[in-house]
Amino acid sequence: MVTSGRNAEYYAHLKRLRKRRKRRYMLFIHLKKTKRRVVLKRTYFRLEKEKITPKEGLAVLVGTQIGAGVLGLPYAAAKVGLVPATIILFGIMLLLLFTAMIVLKLSASMGGAQMSTITERILGKAGGWTMYLSITIMSFGALLAYVAGMGNVFSQLFGINENLGALIFWLFAAFIIYRGLQASGKAELLMYYIMLTLFIVVMGMLVPYAKLSNGLYMNFAGIASMVGIAIFALGCHTVIPDVYKAIGDYQKTKRVVILAFLIPTIIYALFTAVFLFAFGAKTPQIATQGLSEMYGYAGYLIGNIIPFIAITTSFIGIGLAQQSNTVEFLKMKKILAWSITTIPPLLVYVGGIKNFADVLAFAGDTGDMMSFIILPIAIWIVWIYWKKRRMA
Fold first, then answer.
1. What pLDDT does 161 receive?
2. How far apart are the first and last CA of the chain?
3. Which residue of 76, 102, 159, 181 is surrounded by the most CB atoms within 10 Å?
4. Are the CB atoms for 79 and 91 separated by under 8 Å?
5. How many C-alpha atoms does 130 have within 13 Å on its Cβ side?
6. Which pTM does this prediction carry?
């Protein structure tokens, strides 16, 4: 009986040990899963909306590019002539595609890091802050210009006060930014197809009025303006890390980025050529507004619908990127990052700064040049130097 009792106690002890081991094992599994979720929280778009398709990613990038820049590009091209403008446009495209590939490569190697984080890791804190401030200036200027532009567009389309139109637009676009990348991906995919259709319609409307002699001249005095607007019109680097994280595949994202530069550049070149052949040196500052001279109310309507869609897609793309950039770089909660990204441009607009062209020029001449060209090339040079030193 004693032996039987001891055996029962021994087996009971083994049972308790197995339960403890099982609890420890389950705790270990739970901690591993918790740790994995914490890592994903750094990329909150993925947590909220796990994936977007390459087609949606392309729509986000192209939508970010085809904004206010395309409306001013024919006017800038009219200052130099079609041939120099086309050469500048494709030259800037190749340069920006090169720096965009730098951003994608380094972001992918760092787990989808934003541009400010990439710069900080390679160029130190000073470099990181320089990148962050450059992007912030560019984003703030662009968002302010878009609010101002859309106030004017709403006023003309619906006959309402410009301030009210700007507020309605801001509420709509800021809500989509807060919802995250998936909401933007679907919205911009629809707008992307609508925009392509409208560009084709506009070019078709202008072909009957086109004359080759109107665009075949050269004037090199306006080269600086053409370069600046081309950089602004093609820059989408800040959105690339978010698109990469949401697609989740480097090679697919690489193909998307290449197409995201080729498609808008070809569209810009055709769009600019048609306007120059139709209007020549008298191309209006907001190109599509010239349609009313030829087609009356129909031209007036289309001429305002295009900036409506173009500016909306750009506002969403740039706002999303800056919000994500602030969350990661400043370790800030999403609601605060959203607030400091979207609210200040509205407040400054209400405060009286409403000159669309001047604000857009400020954004392009300061933030875009530094964040899309100078800093990515500097990062690339330092990164290559580090790799060579490690191999030596």
1. 92
2. 76
3. 181
4. no
5. 18
6. 0.73
